[in-house]
Design a protein that fits this description.
The chain has 234 residues and is α+β, with helices and mostly antiparallel strands. It folds into two domains: 152 residues, 2-Layer Sandwich (Beta-Lactamase), CATH 3.30.450.40; 34 residues, no CATH class. It is built from seven helices and eight strands, in the order ααβββαβαββαββαα.
């Protein structure tokens, strides 16, 4: 797993295009389920860039982000498994943290690292309570499973972005082909048109076949005068 300060995490967050996006039901459902299973007041999908932890989903709390220096999740993404803090006031790493000494007065924390297919931890799915707690094995397993669902949602989002870009590229290519087809190869001497089979056709025959245009043949005054001049010379 990459170190929490690695550039890989920042690049992956940019690739997902997830930071500072609006709330989405799929992520809100996961945090609500996590809080219910673990019987906690708060649950978060927390993503960490180089300066902050930003909450894609926040259940039971109004805050949308905190400085990365205060983030329990900055410790959790270094773990290979769940990070569980049963009582933050008794933990030397967190007892003086502003989120413990002040709102939301964290006492219990459990965070499941969000590990991408590239092996990079970009954040956590975490549950938080204002009282010391413990999780049983089933709750721990469910929290880890829900964390994997968060990553699946991010991967699905990335796939849809790539598919949309590919469809736009295909549509652009088709328009370019249509524009090229609209440029008809015409002989500058006899004015015949060449078709896709490399056959040359009179303009009226070509347009009648490809565009369904009917022609009534005549002669313009200029050409009529030219024919009369030829006749007098002969």
């Amino acid at each position: 797993m990459e170190d929490s300060t690695s550039q890989s995490r920042i690049e992956l967050l940019a690739a997902y295009g997830i930071m500072d996006t609006p709330e989405e039901q799929a992520f809100d459902d996961i945090t609500q389920i996590a809080a219910t299973i673990c019987q906690t007041e708060i649950s978060l999908v927390s993503l960490l860039d180089d300066k902050r932890q930003w909450f894609k989903s926040h259940h039971g709390i109004d805050a949308c982000q905190t400085p990365i220096e205060q983030a329990f999740c900055a410790h959790a993404i270094r773990a290979c498994d769940l990070l569980i803090v049963e009582d933050a006031q008794q933990d030397e790493r967190f007892r003086h943290n502003p989120l413990v000494t002040g709102e939301p007065f964290i006492r219990f924390y459990a965070g499941s690292p969000l590990v991408t297919p590239q092996g990079v931890a970009i954040g956590t799915l975490c549950v938080i309570d204002r009282e010391p707690k413990q999780l049983d094995n089933a709750q721990k397993e469910m929290l880890a499973a829900l964390g994997r669902q968060v990553v699946d949602q991010l991967e699905l989002r990335l796939y849809v972005q790539k598919l949309t870009a590919a469809l736009v590229e295909k549509d652009t290519a088709l328009k370019e082909v249509q524009e090229l087809r609209a440029i008809l190869p015409i002989c500058s001497y006899c004015l015949k048109i060449r078709d896709d089979g490399d056959f040359w056709h009179q303009v009226d025959h070509y347009l009648q076949h490809h565009a369904g245009i009917e022609f009534s043949h005549g002669i313009c005054p200029e050409c009529l005068e030219g024919e009369k001049s030829k006749a007098r010379e002969e």
